[in-house]
């Protein structure tokens, strides 16, 4: 009976270990969708065209307290790392009135591109995002390496971005 229990335990451990390896190995990471973002200033950003550099996609709303608290950190990251290749794209949720988004952008002096997800297509492309903030970090190979619902741990995020960016000064 003991041998059978041991074998079952080993088999379960192998299954769990194999699943974890697949999820954590580069080939097991989820590819970012082939999304296009129409920004409030009239540009179109194509996620495929941004390959080769890290990208953060942050779904937010003007009525979301966590989004507002996170914004200064994202602005700081953008100023610090954009010259080294980081792109941050803010996506305003479909329910957020465009005039509120534009006012928040102006009030907070948001330097990174903002896209209005008027029809919810971007939220659907990223797995049907419903809650804000929801953030995705996409590595230079186009794989989602971090998906976070709620405010990001800025210290861990900064370390992750530093590892993906070419060496450089403070930005």
User: How many distinct folded domains?
Assistant: 2
Shape: globular
CATH architecture of the largest domain, by name, is 3-Layer(aba) Sandwich
**Mean pLDDT across all residues, rounded?**
88
Q: How far apart are the termini?
A: 63 Å
CATH class of the largest domain: Alpha Beta
Please report the total strand number as a whole number: 7
Q: So, the CATH homologous superfamily of the largest domain?
A: Glutaredoxin
- The H/E string reads HEEEHEHEHEEH
Query: CATH topology of the largest domain, anyone?
Result: Glutaredoxin
Helix content: 25-40%
Q: Number of helical runs?
A: 5
> Which structural class is indicated by helix and strand composition?
alpha/beta
Return Rg in Å.
19 Å
Indicate the proportion of strand residues.
15-25%
- Please mark out the parts with pLDDT under 50 across 5 or more consecutive residues, or reply none: 11-27
- Taking strands numbered 1, 2, ... along the chain, how are they ordered across the largest sheet? 5-4-3-6-7
The major beta sheet can be summarized as: 5 strands, mixed
């Amino acid at each position: 009976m003991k041998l059978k229990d041991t074998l079952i335990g080993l088999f379960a451990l192998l299954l769990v270990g194999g699943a974890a390896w697949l999820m954590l190995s580069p080939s097991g990471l989820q590819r970012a969708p082939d999304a296009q973002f129409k920004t409030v200033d009239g540009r179109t950003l194509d996620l495929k065209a941004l390959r080769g550099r890290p990208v953060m996609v942050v779904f937010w709303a003007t009525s979301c307290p966590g989004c507002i608290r996170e914004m200064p950190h994202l602005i700081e990251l953008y100023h610090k790392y954009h010259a080294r290749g980081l792109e941050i794209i803010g996506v305003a949720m479909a329910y957020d009135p465009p005039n509120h988004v534009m006012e928040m952008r102006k009030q907070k002096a948001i330097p990174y591109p903002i896209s209005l997800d008027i029809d919810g297509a971007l939220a659907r492309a990223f797995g049907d995002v419903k809650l804000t903030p929801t953030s995705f970090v996409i590595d230079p190979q186009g794989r989602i390496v971090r998906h976070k619902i709620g405010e990001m741990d800025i210290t861990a995020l900064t370390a992750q971005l530093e590892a993906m960016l070419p060496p450089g000064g403070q930005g």
